[in-house]
């Protein structure tokens, strides 16, 4: 299924191909918890940035491997390239404008990322 998504102000527009029933991860690390991020990791080939490349600002922290992208106008993070899946894209399900038929949420212990990252590595394949 093709989903459309955007940031709050609409400057960033994207599409992502994902199943009708989405398997999402709810991470308890500080950046995800504080921003309300709900994860959908897909292969990069299933993601397309439609508008707003010039409006994105990149943020890196800790190991400086993951590339977090925020809208310069509204501050929302609609997607990023995760350290666990550098060949994929992690979309914030809360930024999808197309409603999913069903979302199954699994808790992910991001506070202990090093011990749990292997549980995500298959998602961008």
What's a quick, concise take on this entry?
By secondary structure, this protein is mostly beta strands.
Question: Explain this structure to me?
Answer:
This protein has 125 residues and is mostly beta strands. Strand 1 and strand 2 (13-17) form a beta hairpin. It has helices at residues 30-35, 113-116; strands spanning 2-6, 13-17, 21-27, 39-43, 47-51, 56-59, 67-71, 79-81, 88-92, 102-108. The radius of gyration is 13 Å and the shape is globular. The protein is built from two helices and ten strands; from the N terminus they run βββαβββββββα. Helix content is 8%, strand content 41%.
Strand order of the largest sheet: 4-9-8-7-6
Low-confidence stretches: none
N-to-C order of helices and strands? EEEHEEEEEEEH
Rg, rounded, reads 13 Å
Q: Can you give the mean pLDDT?
A: 95
From the 3D coordinates, which CATH architecture would you assign? Answer: Beta Complex
Highest CATH level, the class: Mainly Beta
| Beta-strand proportion | 35-45%
Largest sheet features: 5 strands, antiparallel
How would you classify the helix and strand content by structural class? mainly beta
CATH topology: Metal Binding Protein, Guanine Nucleotide Exchange Factor, Chain A
Helical residue percent band: under 10%
What is the overall silhouette? globular
Query: How many separate domains make up the residues?
Result: 1
The tally of strands reads 10
**Helix segment tally:** 2
| N/C terminus separation | 17 Å
